[in-house]
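F.,

This is the one I mentioned.
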């Protein structure tokens, strides 16, 4: 057969195929003794021409101890079906340079902080989560902001608290401010409550979820506890002292001021379980000593109208700031407060008065603080206490002298009570404790029951005051 009619022309090097190649792609090298027994390829003619000298391979054989060749690799004595000798070597990449580890890391080189996510690692907090009653007691030692952060970032603590949220809030309030918890009842403050995250329904309204106290209510009672203590401390620095129970009475005043209409205010004043006779007596003492502070001939320079205006505000925090001299420092500030309290412009005007918007002029003297219209004016808390004392026949006007002398003169010996003058900033030592035993009582409030003489005076003053006088009149 002529080579011109052949599709694959004959090459000078005979093409041979190895039929003993295994299926794994391993191609054994032909030996010299086996060159005589190779079978011709399917595309080569029967005529062969042997080369006188053996041809050396064009490319060096790569070292392959396992005998495995990369794909598309042909030997020099073997050719593909198109008569070309192809060798494809996989290039060996140089090894990467070694990573240089710095000896010292700067603030910018440090990795971002990561949180522990290994649940198998022993953790005291995870162990405490297995006992909800124990973790609720431990959480009382946390600061309020830390407690809220823990509730936000810990999934297990979040789920555990949601199941018993009411118990959590009541326990925290009892441990931090038990007196405020009993007075500022969370059911009376819907704006600081939340729906039950455990999806418990209301017993009276099965179609809606019930309301429970929230962190906002807890923060509110802690704030009010601090404000009342601040008011008593400011009055103590000026020399006006009170019995121990006066803090509870001031909180009841604040609770009454939160009511937005006269009818409910009068109704709560008539409730003797809330406003007891001793509370009316101590409230009168508080009003009297507040007038003594605001009308002081040297540092007061005021009048009784200031007391009515300060007790008509939405919050007693304004009174605390005024006693600390943080608000109402100038006559302009006082005039703005008067305009918001009960100023009546001669004509209806839509313009601001001394920077006070027209909608806020005289707003605090109306029921609902002027939000639902201006129909009836508020009855002041001082007037409510006075009228309730008259209704119960307590004769509080006969106790004015005793109220003024309380904390200064012993009612039995009529001698001055000697005290160490206390200035602001001298209430404690390095460890926060009081220097003298008589400067701080067991509940940490200054100026309340400072020595046995005053405690005995307090017992005589309150014990023989409104309650016994009333009972004696009823028996007589």
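My design for it:
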């Amino acid at each position: 057969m002529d080579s011109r009619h052949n599709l694959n022309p004959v090459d000078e090097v005979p093409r041979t195929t190895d039929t003993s190649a295994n299926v794994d792609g391993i191609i054994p090298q032909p030996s010299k003794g086996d060159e005589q027994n190779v079978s011709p390829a399917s595309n080569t003619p029967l005529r062969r021409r042997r080369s006188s000298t053996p041809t050396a391979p064009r490319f060096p054989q790569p070292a392959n101890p396992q005998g495995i060749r990369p794909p598309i690799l042909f030997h020099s004595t073997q050719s593909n079906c198109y008569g070309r000798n192809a060798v494809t070597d996989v290039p060996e990449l140089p090894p990467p340079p070694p990573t240089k580890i710095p000896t010292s890391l700067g603030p910018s080189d440090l990795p971002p902080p990561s949180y522990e996510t290994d649940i198998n690692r022993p953790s005291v907090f995870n162990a405490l989560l297995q006992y909800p009653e124990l973790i609720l007691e431990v959480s009382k030692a946390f600061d309020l902001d830390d407690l809220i952060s823990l509730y936000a970032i810990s999934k297990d603590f979040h789920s555990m608290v949601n199941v018993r949220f009411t118990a959590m809030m009541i326990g925290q309030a009892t441990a931090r401010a038990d007196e405020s918890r009993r007075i500022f009842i969370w059911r009376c403050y819907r704006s600081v409550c939340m729906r039950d995250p455990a999806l418990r329904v209301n017993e009276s309204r099965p179609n809606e979820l019930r309301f429970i106290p929230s962190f906002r209510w807890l923060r509110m009672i802690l704030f009010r506890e601090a404000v009342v203590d601040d008011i008593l401390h400011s009055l103590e620095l000026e020399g006006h002292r009170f019995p121990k129970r006066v803090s509870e009475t001031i909180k009841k005043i604040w609770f009454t001021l939160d009511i937005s209409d006269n009818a409910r205010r009068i109704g709560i004043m008539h409730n003797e379980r809330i406003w007891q006779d001793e509370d009316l007596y101590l409230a009168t003492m508080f009003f009297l000593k507040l007038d003594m502070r605001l009308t002081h001939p040297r540092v007061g320079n005021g009048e009784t109208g200031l007391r009515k205006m300060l007790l008509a505000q939405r919050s007693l925090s304004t009174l605390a700031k005024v006693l600390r001299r943080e608000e109402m420092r100038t006559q302009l500030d006082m005039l703005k407060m008067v305009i918001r309290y009960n100023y009546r412009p001669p004509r209806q005007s839509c313009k601001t008065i001394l920077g006070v918007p027209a909608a806020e002029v005289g707003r605090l003297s109306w029921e609902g603080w002027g939000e639902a219209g201006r129909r009836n004016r508020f009855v002041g808390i001082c007037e409510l206490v006075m009228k309730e004392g008259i209704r119960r026949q307590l004769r509080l006007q006969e106790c004015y002298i005793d109220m003024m002398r309380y904390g200064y003169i012993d009612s039995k010996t009529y001698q001055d009570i000697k005290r160490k003058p206390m200035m602001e900033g001298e209430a404690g030592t390095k460890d926060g404790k009081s220097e003298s035993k008589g400067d701080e009582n067991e509940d940490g409030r200054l100026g309340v029951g400072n020595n046995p003489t005053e405690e005995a005076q307090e017992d005589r003053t309150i014990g023989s005051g409104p309650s016994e006088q009333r009972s004696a009149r009823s028996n007589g």
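Residues 1-90 form one domain.

Talk soon.
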